[in-house]
Amino acid sequence: IPPVITIDGPSGSGKGTIAHRLALKLGFHVLDSGALYRLLALAAQQHGVQTDNEKGLEVLAAYLDVQFEDNNGEAMLILEGEDVTQTIRTEEVGAAASRIAALPGVRAALLQRQHAFRELPGLVADGRDMGTVVFPDACLKIFLTASAEARAERRYKQLLQKGFDANLAAILEDIRARDLRDTQRAVAPMKPAADAIVLDSTALGIEAVLQAVIASACK
Ligand code: CDP
Questions:
Q1: Is 0.95 topped by the overall pTM?
Q2: Are 13 and 203 in contact (CB under 8 A)?
Q3: Is it true that the peptide bond before 192 is cis, omega within 30 degrees of 0?
Q4: Is there a smaller number of Cβ atoms within 10 Å at the N or the C end of the chain?
Q5: Which residue, judged by its Cα, is nearest atom 16 of ligand 1?
Q6: Closest by alpha carbon to 35, among 81, 73, 69, 5?
Q7: Topology of the domain covering 4-216
Q8: From atom 4 of ligand 1, which residue's Cα is the shortest distance away?
Q9: Are 11 and 178 in contact (CB under 8 A)?
Q10: Whole-number Å distance between alpha carbons of 218 and 214
Q11: 33-61 pLDDT, tens per residue?
Q12: Ligand 1 pocket, 118 CB below 6 A?
């Protein structure tokens, strides 16, 4: 079976960037599991399914028509035939994604879809519970973290770069709320797997983190 490297951690820890760079380096596939929750949140919004309607969301998840396409090395996300790559990155969709992610039925409904990304030559999986729940047999598990302030600042710069309006104080508040929801939820709470390497990137740049991860990467 194809090897998996998991990179878990909170919002803004840099795990998405690290996952993509690592996958590129190893020639592995990438799973951005957060994108699946965001896609489902957006689909729910478009179909008028409330974020607390667990049954409705389960059905939506089971029939979710999504494609992950490669656009010159950048992931392009197609929902029901429409390019939603930008749309799913708003704070509004992120907050809704975090709310629906707390529902056990939703997580169960998305499990198989995540497993389907495990293909040769290997997979780098980015999320909150990749090492603990989705790929417990991963050959390398990284838990990437950073202070809430540092993460808010990164997210702020990222949003501005993408041309979105952004407010640093509001982002910090949102990050704290999301951390709380992600760590306190009953099902698959965010935490390092027992066998994960915990890396604090508050004072480390992307290159330094990447070097640390590559140094222990399995193939
Ligand atoms: O970009 P950011 O790190 O804020 O979020 P994301 O990785 O795109 O994921 C959006 C939301 O989905 C997170 O706030 C989590 O609540 C949830 N999520 C999850 O519960 N489990 C995962 N494996 C990935 C994301």
A1: no
A2: no
A3: no
A4: N
A5: 98
A6: 69
A7: Rossmann fold (3.40.50)
A8: 11
A9: yes
A10: 8
A11: 999 999 999 999 999 999 999 999 999 99
A12: no
